[in-house]
Structure formats: structure tokens, C-alpha cells
């Protein structure tokens, strides 16, 4: 390869712009004189290196210009956050001082329109992500530069060697020096570029933080405005001028110039965040697939092609869930589209379209839920025992009218926003009024007394009282849309919109709650049976469902009075919690619509609390600061604290019954451990309730810590013996130095252990007296356990019973049977506990104590015969009985004894 080694007359000087010097100053890399000198280019190799260095210099200058523009943008964003903060504080001060006057109301409406413009200006998410990606790509390209000048001597040799030059020759020394200078210059330039890109990314982070803070502040500002301008008149009353403006409104609706920025904005959104568009499309497809599958399953359940062997309540549960899912899918798609249009890079046209899609989705939700309930083979048709005349005609009517209402919602919302509402008094107002008249006509046909479509449903599920006052329901259903149309005609269009939104949400949630209520009761019953181990009889099914004459419910089986009482108490608490949650949600939804509603919630007292807030510093970076806030405690807080204490007290009171139903049926506890578990559980439940109640009423640890310290010291001195007894009880319960029936001596007292509690232990002496010993004596005094000296004999037996009875009932019956037997000691009392549960039977262990001098094996055989005879008389004895360890199996002889019938053992020993 031949090279021209003659000196060239070309000279190269890379430019330095003022912005470049500024970037160098900001990054600490001020170029020196060595970077500003000129030198001749003598070879194509050096010429190529110089051209690459020139490109790096140009990239550095462009980065400096971009950094300057970004700094200006960050400064504007931070200034806007500060202005918005001051503006919000000023508006809040005006509201606190003057109240909601007409002037303040007009100011708030102007601020609401200004917030939309700020949202368009603050849509920097796409810019930040795009610039971050570009910076990362540029940094990766810099890292991939092969000859970066980090080792100029070695890299010069490599470059010359690859070009076929010999660096040792004298004639190539000038070229070697020239290449070395270029590589050293490149190294400095790359270092400056890397540092510049790091600073640029840091500045992008500041812009993102400022934009996030601005978005949060704008959202708070918008909530404040929406809460106060509900009852502010948004326009003039209807007049003949509005009718004349219909033509201009129609022209504005179809004017393409008003939405000219819609297409370019969509293109920018897809270019900047293509993944967001793909995710939106995927979610839409998934929701359509879910809708298709749920609708198919719903129809198959209604036609008895699925779940034919399930109970009626199970099919009703599945149909309710599927109906709700089918009704939610199409409105969810509209909400997804609206959320995508209103996020990221936005314009005025996309914001208008997003608001219209939100309104269409809400109206679609109000239409879809009742339409899916009324469909053929749907929920009301197949799973509710009520006849609705004209159900098919009502479903078709809802389909047609619902589509029109959705289109009307979209059009009315768009026209209310075009030109900042200039046409809201033409197409928007008349469209809203016409839609309300259609809703009123629908309510008239559905709720009319003496012939309404929904009257049979009200008569069946509303009860006699609601059925008698159905005229009030009719007046409410008919009067609400007419009142909204009247408000719009009087110029309160925004008020009518807000009331309609909340009414739709209340209506939809009520319908969905009614649809799922039967399923909630079924799930609760099944969960109760699963927790308590109760079973229902096996049911037979044919092609039309359950066989005739069989119960269709979850009340089958034997439930004791105690068990039913516990179930009813828990059901009451659950319904109380659901009702309270529904009331709170309803109040939260409607409280802003009632003027001065918060006056009825007076402040009782205030508390000081230290909170940590995230703010934006003057440089645009996020900072945190601790602020002492004054928190008001209102009457509603006191009511919430009282409700919390009530629920905690009720749960603590029900804990013994819950412990018996859920724990003692599966785990064997002695009396002491059971008592300890109940006391500890009650303390924890009530303690958590007290903690939550204290948070409600503003009691903080900083307030009561000195009081707690004083009480702790006082209790430490005054209740020393109580604390010692409690810790001694823990030692007795866990270490087991003495068990029930043991003959022990503590100090000068000797007796048998009759009971073990958390604070005391009860001893029974030979004279029949009971001696209560504090548990601290087990720690502070010598304890003698007379092993084998007058010791009692324990008689354990195991029996297998069927699963038709609750274990607690069987154990209670066996306890009463054994304690009536002669020679069985009353103290310690007999025990009957559940050992394990099998597929067909459950095993019960019975333990009794007798005096040590008696023949324990013979007594065990007699006791086992008695127990088995009793169980057989009650039809509770399982076919396979477990072997009795440590003795001969008496069951073989028993099977020929009590009833004179001989049965052959199968040899299986499992329960």
C-alpha cells in the first residue's frame, strides 16, 4: 500500500463557540492553549484523525448549545412551579377570607382553563425520555471509539503499523509526532464530552423532577378548583341567542382546523413512546378477548352447558362475576384510550378528545351493566327467580338508546371544551338536555308504579316497605334527569355535569354490588365451612341441575347452638364493616356537592405533628424537609375512633368462640396453654384497636411518652408480684415442670396439679381442698415432683368416628360419658381431643386418670368397650378403628360383644 509522505498544505483549526466555552466552564474542562494551536496535515492518516477530532469538536459545541437550552427550560419549569405554588396559596387565602363569592368563582373558572394550557406546556415526559436515550447512545458511541488517545504512544504505533509504516524510520518521525498530538487532543475532547453528557443527564433529571412536581401541584390545584366551583354558574340562562348559535356550533363541531394538531400530536406520541402505543393496543386486544370468553361462558352457564353439576348458588356466583366482567370491558377500553391521550405529549385537541372519551366511558358503564343483566340467558333471565315482562324488548331498547347516549356524551363534552367553551351554550347544552330527557323517559318506563318494567324486581327484593313507597323511587328516578336539564338551562352546566357523574358512579356501583352480593354470601359460607371443617351432604344432579327434594343451600349438616351464634355474630360484623365502607365511599363521593357540608364536621381540637415533605429546590432538584403541621381532629375522627374500639371489643369478645371453632378443632391444647393464648390474643386485638383509635383522635407517641414512662415506673413498683406471676406462668406453661395430675411439693404445700393458669396453679390435697399457688413460686422456691410416689395412671384410648358430626360435639359427648364412669378422677378431669381428620373418618383421643393402684389395662379395655358401644348406638362409629398402642386390640372382641354381631376387620389402621 503506497502512501504520499509529502507534507500537505492543508491546515485544520477546530472551532470554539461561546457556548462551548460556557460548557467547558460548567464542566471544569477549560481548553488550554495546546487545543487552540494549528498544525499542518501531512498525510491521509493524520487527515482522517483530524476530521474525526473535528467531528468530536462539533459534537461538543452542539452539546453546549443543547445544555444552554435545557438550562433555560429547567429554569422556566422551576419558576412555573414557584408561581403555581404562590398562585395556589393566594387562591386558598381568598377562599378562606372571602368565601366562594361570584368574583372568586369566575377567578377559579379562569384558573381551571389555565391549568389545561399548563398541562400542554408541561408535557415534557417524551422530551426527557428521548433526550436520555440519545445521550446514552452518544455515550455508547464514545465508548466504542477504538483509538481514544488514552495511551497515545502505543496507539500511534498501532495506527502506523496498520497503515504499513515503520515508526523506527527517521522519515516517519514527523508523522508519528503528528498522530500522537492528534490522539492526545482526541483524548481530552472525549473526556470533555463524557463529562458534558453526564452533566446533561443530570440537568434532564432536574427537568423531570420539576415537571413531576408541577404535575402534582397542578393536580392539587385542579382538585381545589373542582371542589369550589361546583355551584358557580358556568354560563347564562338559555335564550333565543343560543338557538341562533346552533348553526355556528355545528360548524365548529365539524371544523377540521380546530383539531389540526390532533394528528401531529398522535404522531409525536407514537414516535416518542412507541411502546406506550403498543401496550395500549395489546391491552385493548386482551380486554376484547376477555369480553368474548366471559360472554361465552356466561351464555353456556345460562343454557346449562357449563357447571351442570354445581349448586344453584355456585352458578349464580359465576354468572354475577362474568356479567360484571363483560360489562366493564368496553368502558375500560374507552378509559385506556382517554388515559393514553391525556398523558405524555399532549395538545389541546388530545385533551379535548381524552375528556370526551372519559365521559363516553362513564356513560357506557351506566349502559353496559344493566344491559348485560337483561340479556338472554343472562343473570336476571336464569339466576334470579323473578319474571320481568318485556325483558327482551328492554334489552334491545337499552342497546339502541345506550349507543346514542355514548355518542351524545362524547359530542357534548367536546363541544363544551372547544374554544374554551364558547359553544357550550349551543350544541353542548341542547345535547345534554336532550340526553337527560331520554334518561327521564327510560326511568318512567322502568319505574312507573302499576306497570313499570322493574316493579316485579322491586316487589321481590325491596320488601313490603320499599314496594309501598315505590312512588318516591319513581319520583327520584324521573326527577333527577329533569332537574339536571333544568340546571343546564339556567346556566349551571358544570354543576349538572358533576351531579350526573356522581349519580352514574353511585348507580353503577349499586348495581354491581347487588349483582355480586349473592356471590359474596356464597363465598362467605364456603369459607366458613372450610375453616370450621363442617360438611354438607352429597347431592345428586341431573341434566337440569339438583335433583328434586334436596336442599339447595349451605345450612346442611349439624351445627350446634354455640356454633350458629358465632357464625351470626361474625356475619353481623362483616355486614357492619361493608355497610360502613359503603357509607364512607358514598359520603366521600357526594360531600363536595353539598355546600358547606364540612361545617357539620366541627373541629374538636388540634394536634401538632412533624411530617416530611418532598419539595423542589431553587436549582430544580428534589429535596426533603421536616415541617410541623397543625392537624385538626374533627367529630368524624371521634366517630371513627369509637367505631374502631367497638370492632376491636367485639372481636376480642368473640375470640374464645373463634379459638374453639378454628384452632381447638385441629390442635390439642391443655388448659393452661389455651388460657394463655386467649389472654394474649385478646390483649393484641384490643391493643391494635386502641392504637388505631389513638391515631384517629390525634394522640401521638410524642404526647404520651412521658405519661407511659411514669405509668411503667409506677406499675413496675406497684405490680411487681403480678409481673412475677405472669412470667412464672409462662415458665410453667412452656417448660412444663409439672403436668396435670402430678404430685408436687412447693415450699410447704403438697398436692396434685388440678389446673394451670397464666397467673396461678391450682393444687388439690388429700382433704379435698384446692390450694392456689402463685406461679412465681415455681421460680423462687424449690419444686419437688414426686415421680412414682402416689402417681396417677393415665388411660389413653383412640377411636375413629364418622365425619357427619362436628369434632367439638363428639369430644364434648365423650367427655361427659367418661367422667360418669366409676373410678375416673374428676381432677384432673378427662380430656377428649381431635387427633387427625381423614377422608372418611376422624380420630378422637380420650384420656382419663385413675389411681395408680388399680389394674390399668383392664380398666382401659372396659372404658374402650363403653366408648365404642356408645358411639355405635349414635351411629357415629367408623368402620376402621385404630389400634391401641401398648395393649391388645380390644376391638376384635368388642365386635362380637355389645350387639351380638360379628364383623371382620379389614386390617387398615388409618383414620
Shape: extended
Rg estimate, integer Å: 42 Å
Strand percentage: 5-15%
- The overall strand count is 14
Cα end-to-end separation: 94 Å
Structural class: alpha+beta
The chain-level mean pLDDT equals 77
Fold and architecture overview:
Helix 14 packs antiparallel against helix 15 and helix 18 packs antiparallel against helix 19 (493-532). Residues 1-39, 536-559 and 886-911 have low confidence and may be disordered. 62% of the residues lie in helices and 10% in strands. The protein has 911 residues and is an alpha+beta fold. The chain folds into five domains: 11-228; 240-518, no CATH class; 602-708, no CATH class; 719-785, SH3 type barrels; 793-894, Alpha-Beta Plaits, CATH 3.30.70.100. A five-stranded antiparallel beta sheet has the order 10-9-8-7-11. The chain is extended, with a radius of gyration of 42 Å. The protein is built from 28 helices and 14 strands. The longest helix is centred in the N-terminal third of the chain and has 56 residues, at 173-228.
Walk me through the topology.
Layout: E1 11-12, H1 18-27, E2 39-40, H2 44-98, H3 102-121, H4 125-143, H5 152-163, H6 173-228, H7 240-244, H8 246-253, H9 262-272, H10 274-302, H11 312-342, H12 348-374, H13 379-382, H14 391-417, H15 424-447, H16 455-461, H17 463-468, H18 470-490, H19 493-532, E3 541-542, E4 545-546, H20 561-590, E5 603-616, E6 622-634, H21 635-662, H22 671-696, H23 701-718, H24 720-735, E7 743-746, E8 749-756, E9 760-764, E10 770-774, H25 777-780, E11 783-785, E12 793-802, H26 807-819, E13 831-837, E14 841-850, H27 856-873, H28 891-894
Antiparallel strand pairs: 1-2, 3-4, 5-6, 7-8, 7-11, 8-9, 9-10, 12-14, 13-14
Amino acid at each position: 500500500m503506497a502512501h504520499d509522505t509529502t507534507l500537505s498544505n492543508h491546515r485544520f483549526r477546530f472551532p470554539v463557540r461561546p457556548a462551548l466555552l460556557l460548557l467547558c466552564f460548567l464542566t471544569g474542562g477549560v481548553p488550554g492553549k495546546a487545543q487552540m494551536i494549528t498544525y499542518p496535515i501531512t498525510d491521509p492518516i493524520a487527515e482522517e484523525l483530524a476530521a474525526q477530532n473535528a467531528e468530536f469538536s462539533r459534537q461538543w459545541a452542539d452539546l453546549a448549545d443543547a445544555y444552554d437550552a435545557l438550562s433555560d427550560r429547567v429554569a422556566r419549569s422551576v419558576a412555573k412551579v414557584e408561581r403555581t405554588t404562590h398562585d395556589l396559596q393566594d387562591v386558598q387565602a381568598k377562599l378562606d377570607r372571602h368565601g366562594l363569592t361570584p368574583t372568586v368563582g369566575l377567578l377559579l373558572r379562569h384558573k381551571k382553563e389555565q391549568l389545561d394550557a399548563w398541562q400542554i406546556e408541561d408535557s415534557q415526559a417524551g422530551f426527557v425520555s428521548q433526550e436520555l436515550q440519545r445521550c446514552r447512545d452518544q455515550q455508547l458511541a464514545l465508548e466504542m471509539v477504538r483509538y481514544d488517545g488514552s495511551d497515545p504512544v502505543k496507539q500511534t504505533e498501532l495506527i502506523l503499523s496498520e497503515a504499513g509504516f515503520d515508526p523506527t524510520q527517521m522519515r516517519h518521525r514527523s508523522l508519528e509526532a503528528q498522530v500522537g498530538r492528534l490522539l492526545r487532543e482526541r483524548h481530552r475532547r472525549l473526556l470533555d464530552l463524557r463529562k458534558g453528557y453526564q452533566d446533561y443527564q443530570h440537568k434532564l433529571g432536574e427537568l423531570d423532577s420539576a415537571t413531576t412536581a408541577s404535575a402534582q401541584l397542578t393536580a392539587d390545584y385542579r382538585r381545589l378548583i373542582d371542589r369550589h366551583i361546583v355551584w358557580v354558574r358556568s354560563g347564562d340562562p338559555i335564550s333565543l341567542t343560543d338557538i341562533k348559535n346552533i348553526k355556528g356550533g355545528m360548524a365548529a363541531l365539524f371544523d377540521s382546523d380546530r383539531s389540526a394538531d390532533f394528528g401531529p400530536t398522535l404522531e409525536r406520541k407514537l414516535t416518542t413512546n412507541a411502546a406506550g402505543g403498543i401496550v395500549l393496543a395489546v391491552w385493548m386486544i386482551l380486554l376484547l378477548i376477555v369480553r368474548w370468553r366471559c360472554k361465552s361462558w356466561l351464555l353456556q352457564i345460562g343454557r346449562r352447558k357449563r357447571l351442570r353439576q354445581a349448586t344453584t348458588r355456585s352458578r349464580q356466583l359465576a354468572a354475577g362475576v362474568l356479567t360484571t366482567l363483560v360489562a366493564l370491558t368496553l368502558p375500560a377500553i374507552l378509559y385506556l384510550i382517554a388515559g393514553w391521550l391525556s398523558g405524555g405529549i399532549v395538545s389541546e385537541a388530545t385533551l379535548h378528545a381524552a375528556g370526551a372519551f372519559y365521559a363516553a366511558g362513564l356513560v357506557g358503564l351506566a349502559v353496559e351493566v344493566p344491559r348485560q343483566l337483561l340479556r338472554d340467558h343472562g343473570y336476571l333471565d336464569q339466576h334470579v327467580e323473578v319474571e320481568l315482562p318485556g325483558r327482551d324488548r328492554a334489552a334491545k331498547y337499552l342497546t339502541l338508546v345506550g349507543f346514542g347516549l355514548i355518542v351524545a356524551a362524547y359530542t357534548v363534552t367536546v363541544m363544551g371544551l372547544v374554544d374554551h367553551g364558547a359553544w357550550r351554550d349551543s350544541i353542548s347544552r341542547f345535547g345534554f338536555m336532550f340526553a337527560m330527557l331520554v334518561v327521564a323517559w327510560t326511568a318512567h318506563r322502568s319505574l312507573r308504579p302499576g306497570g313499570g318494567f322493574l316493579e316485579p324486581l322491586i316487589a321481590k327484593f325491596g320488601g313490603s316497605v320499599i314496594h309501598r313507597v315505590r312512588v318516591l323511587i319513581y319520583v327520584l328516578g324521573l326527577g333527577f334527569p329533569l332537574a339536571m336539564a333544568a340546571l343546564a338551562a339556567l346556566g349551571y352546566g358544570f354543576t349538572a355535569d358533576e351531579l350526573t357523574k356522581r349519580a352514574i358512579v353511585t348507580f353503577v356501583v349499586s348495581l354491581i354490588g347487588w349483582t355480586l352480593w349473592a356471590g359474596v354470601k356464597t363465598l362467605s359460607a364456603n369459607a366458613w365451612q372450610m375453616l370450621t371443617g363442617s360438611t354438607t351432604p352429597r347431592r345428586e344432579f341431573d341434566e337440569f341441575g339438583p335433583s328434586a327434594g334436596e336442599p339447595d343451600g349451605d345450612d346442611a349438616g349439624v351445627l350446634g347452638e354455640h356454633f350458629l351464634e358465632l357464625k351470626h355474630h361474625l356475619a353481623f360484623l362483616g355486614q357492619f364493616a361493608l355497610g360502613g365502607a359503603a357509607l364512607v365511599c358514598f359520603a366521600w363521593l357526594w360531600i363536595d356537592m353539598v355546600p358547606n357540608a364540612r361545617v357539620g364536621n366541627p373541629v374538636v381540637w388540634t394536634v401538632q405533628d412533624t411530617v416530611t415533605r418532598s419539595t423542589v429546590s431553587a436549582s430544580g432538584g428534589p429535596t426533603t424537609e421536616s415541617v410541623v403541621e397543625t392537624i385538626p381532629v374533627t367529630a368524624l375522627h371521634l366517630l371513627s375512633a369509637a367505631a374502631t374500639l367497638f370492632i376491636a371489643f367485639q372481636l376480642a369478645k368473640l375470640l374464645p368462640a373463634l379459638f374453639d371453632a378454628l384452632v381447638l378443632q385441629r390442635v390439642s391444647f391443655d388448659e393452661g396453654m389455651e388460657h394463655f393464648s386467649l389472654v394474649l390474643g385478646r390483649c393484641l386485638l384490643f391493643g391494635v384497636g386502641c392504637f388505631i383509635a389513638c391515631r384517629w383522635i390525634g394522640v401521638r407517641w410524642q404526647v404520651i411518652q412521658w405519661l407511659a414512662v411514669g405509668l411503667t415506673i409506677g406499675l413496675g413498683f406497684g405490680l411487681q408480684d403480678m409481673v412475677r406471676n405472669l412470667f412464672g406462668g409462662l415458665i410453667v406453661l412452656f417448660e412444663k415442670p409439672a403436668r396435670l395430675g402430678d404430685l408436687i411439693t412447693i415450699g410447704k404445700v403438697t398436692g396434685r396439679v388440678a389446673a394451670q393458669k397464666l397467673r396461678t396453679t391450682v393444687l388439690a390435697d388429700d382433704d379435698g381442698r384446692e390450694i392456689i399457688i402463685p406461679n412465681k413460686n415455681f421460680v423462687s422456691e424449690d419444686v419437688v415432683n414426686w415421680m412414682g410416689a402416689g402417681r396417677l395412671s393415665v388411660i389413653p384410648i383412640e377411636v375413629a368416628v364418622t365425619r357427619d358430626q362436628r369434632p367439638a360435639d363428639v369430644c364434648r359427648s365423650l367427655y361427659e360419658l367418661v367422667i360418669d364412669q366409676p373410678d375416673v378422677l374428676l381432677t384432673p378431669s378427662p380430656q377428649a381431643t381431635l387427633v387427625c381428620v381423614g377422608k372418611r373418618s376422624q380420630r378422637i383421643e380420650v384420656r382419663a386418670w385413675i389411681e395408680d393402684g388399680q389394674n390399668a389395662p383392664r380398666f382401659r379395655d372396659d372404658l374402650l368397650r363403653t366408648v365404642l358401644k356408645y358411639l355405635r348406638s349414635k351411629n357415629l362409629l367408623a368402620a376402621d378403628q385404630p389400634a391401641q398402642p401398648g395393649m391388645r386390640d380390644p376391638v376384635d372382641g368388642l365386635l362380637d360383644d355389645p350387639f351380638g354381631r360379628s364383623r371382620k376387620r379389614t386390617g387398615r389402621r388409618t383414620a
